[in-house]
Amino acid sequence: MHDSQLVSRFLAGDLEALGVIYDRYSLPVYRYLSRLVGTTDAEDVLQETFIRAANRLKAYREQERLLQWLLTVARNVALDRLRKKTYLRKRFRKYWRHREAERKSVLPEAQQHTQETKEKIDQALSKLPETQRSVFLLREEAQLKFREVAEIMDIPLGTALSYMRRATENLRKELKGQQL
Amino acid sequence: MNEHTCREITCEQARDILLLTRSGEASQEQAASLQKHLQECESCRTAKIQMEAVLHTFEQTREHNIPRRTQIRQRMVNSVRRPAPRRQLIRRAVLAGAACIFLAVLPVCYFLHQRDSDVAVPASGNNYTETEAGTLKADLFDIVDAFCQDLQSLEYIEEVYGHESVSEDLGEVRSDVSSIRFLV
Predict the structure, then answer these.
(1) Most CB atoms closer than 10 Å: which of A40, B17, B27, B82?
(2) Contacts of residue B51 in chain A, CB cutoff 8 Å?
């Protein structure tokens, strides 16, 4: 069933249509979010994204790709969460350190290695300017076309490509020397 | 070969087309120009290899599933069905609390404002200068702001991380909140 038909069905009161939309797009949205806010918060932000999207589906235009629209909502929810997290990190510094240590210690050994590699990449990603990081993640995690990335970010296509080039180059420099 | 002036397209254009090729957005003409450019430009060949290495490392750590996908789906559908779940009720309670504080603060602000105006003609027994009255007002707003932020934090932490290890910190915040209440 086409996305626009699913949206129409949901707006007519069919909640299962929203479930189908979730089944179809939750993974790319989750991948994008897990890099942006971290895996711990990603599930929560994913849920919030779909709830916010459901409440605003009336504003969805058929010409737009639904995944692209959902990612715009996800980006806004994630940025809200990051602002809140920054405040909480400052306010509860001690607790945050304790929580991170606790989370690492419960992982099996094999997963710890993958987790470490992921953390190095995520750390490198976090050092990128927000615009470069967003372009990179929308393209590589959400697998959007550059044209769509440019629309979400409200920038020209050439700028999106330029951000992507710079992001890749900066990541390469950051990861250089680290044994991955 | 010169970094910036390869035959038909520049290195910068070639690297853009390289990205567009990966995303399936390059035209046949662009793809052909890129191939020709890559045959002739060593610098771009190296850049291509480096870019692919970075993206390959990135792909290795990609998430392949959502840990609690079904539960999230269920929670989402339930939340949409019931527009006033617990989370919203808490938020409403916090907003109502903030509104009450605001209403309680209004007369105090009015009082300070009046006293501020009185500073021009000092009344007997008024120990505040105009600057001090302004500072008091600013402090009062800071207190109210901190009070609201702490309440929101409490709500957030209780919902997302509410387990035993956080209780000590919650105790501290509650104590802060009590002090602020006392001050206001």
Answers:
(1) B17
(2) 168, 172
CATH topology of domain A107-180: Arc Repressor Mutant, subunit A (1.10.10)
Q: Which residue of B has its CA nearest to A159?
A: B16
pLDDT tens by residue, A105-118: 555 565 566 667 77
A22 touches chain B (CB under 8 A): yes
pTM: 0.59
Contact present, A173 and A125 (Cβ < 8 Å):
no
SS3 label, residue B110: helix
Write the ipTM: 0.72
The pLDDT of residue B168 is: 63
CA angle, corner B172, sides to B167 and B177, nearest 5? 120
**Portion 83-142 of B in contact with A at CB < 8 A:** none
Check: CATH 1.10.1740.10 for A1-106? yes
Give the mean pLDDT per block of 10 residues along chain B (184 residues). 59 94 92 93 93 88 79 82 54 81 81 64 49 61 64 63 58 66 56
Give the Å distances, CA to CA, from B183 to B110, B139, B140.
Answer: 17, 11, 9
Tell me whether A82 touches chain B (CB under 8 Å): no
Would you kindly state where each structural domain of chain A is located, as residue ranges? Answer: 1-106, 107-180
